[in-house]
Amino acid sequence: MRNTQKGEYGVRPVIDIDEDDPLFVQAIGRAMQVLSAFHEAGRPLTLNEIAAIAGVGKSAAQRVVHTLRQLGFIERDADDRGYLPGIRILDFTRDYLRLNPLVSRASPVLLELRRSVRERVDLSLVDGLRLVYATRLQSKRETFFATLVGQSVPIYCTSGGRAVMAHLSDAEVDDVIARSDRREITPKTITDPERIWAKVHEARENGFALAVEEILLGEVAIATAVLAPDGRPLGAIHVAASLSEWDAETFCRRFAPLAVEAAGAINRLGTR
User: Fold this and answer.
1) Distance of CA 234 to the CA centre of its chain
2) What is the pTM of this model?
């Protein structure tokens, strides 16, 4: 069973072992709990820290860490201060990206969009109350976190999240808002349910969503949803830029039609 924990920008997945499921392999569950301990780590973790964050006993953590280290999925820090995820974790990232049909069909469309807008272009995928970036095509200036595939942001306060919510039922939107950890990530983050709903209505009317400085100060972002053949939102295309170069109105006028066109192209490819 997957649960969530608070992270820098919203929620991150953690693993809960379901002891009542006869098909659930508890040893694998514990291994994933241990790997999940690194989600919000800002430095190498000691064995005691891994055990505490993962919610497992020190003896169990030691056995799991040893096994994962032997397999290359955990390694010692170069200065021997603790443990870090191992390089073989990247094999799974590659497998996911190359075998995900949405990422595959979206890639050429995103590359063309990036050439047209010359600003950052992202593709995010829905995972519970968050969006996870699966593709990140950079602009001329970025912070480190903005370059990372796998970085996640909450749905409730992001352009991509509002684009996704615009394609949900009213009851589903209410549920997302109610279950979200609606905290201020920046002083501009909208957390009030009525104001979030106003942004969702705006996205439904315009066909794209807008967020200004709600995740990162100085950033403006627009997004439009990518959909399954049945109309369910799978994720979103984002275009983001600096407010030092664009005001929100001009940015929307210039780039929203291109983002909407790109999402439409991806959606049409998914029905073939």
Assistant:
1) 12
2) 0.87
What is the reported pLDDT for 267? 93
Torsions phi, psi of 10, nearest 5?
165, -125
Q: What is the dihedral of CA 176, 203, 171, 2, to 10 degrees?
A: -30
pLDDT computed for residue 71 by the predictor:
95
Mean pLDDT per 10-residue interval, the chain, length 272 residues: 51 64 88 91 93 92 96 91 94 94 95 94 95 89 72 94 98 96 95 97 97 95 96 96 95 97 92 64
At residue 26, the pLDDT reads: 86
Q: State the residue range of the domain holding 83.
A: 2-88
Q: Is 224 helix (H, G, I), strand (E, B) or coil?
A: strand
- Give the three-state DSSP class for 136: strand
What pLDDT was estimated at residue 13? 61
Q: Are residues 144 and 59 in the same domain?
A: no
| CA 258 – CA 113 distance, rounded (Å) | 7
Residue 187 burial by CB count (10 A; 0-12/13-18/19+): exposed, middle or buried? exposed
Angle at CA of residue 49, ends 184 and 66, nearest 5°: 130
- 194: which strand partners? none
> For residue 106, what are its two tokens?
């979206």
Per-residue b or e along 64-99, where b marks 16 or more CB atoms closer than 10 Å to that residue's CB? bbeebeeeebbbeeeeeebbbbbeebeeeeeeeeee
Residues 46 and 105 grouped into a single domain: no
The CATH number for 20's domain is 1.10.10.10
Position 190 in a domain: yes
Query: 29: phi > 0 → left, psi -120 to 50 → alpha, else beta; which?
Result: alpha
Rounded-to-integer distance, Cα 82 and Cα 76, Å: 6
Q: Which pLDDT belongs to residue 2?
A: 44
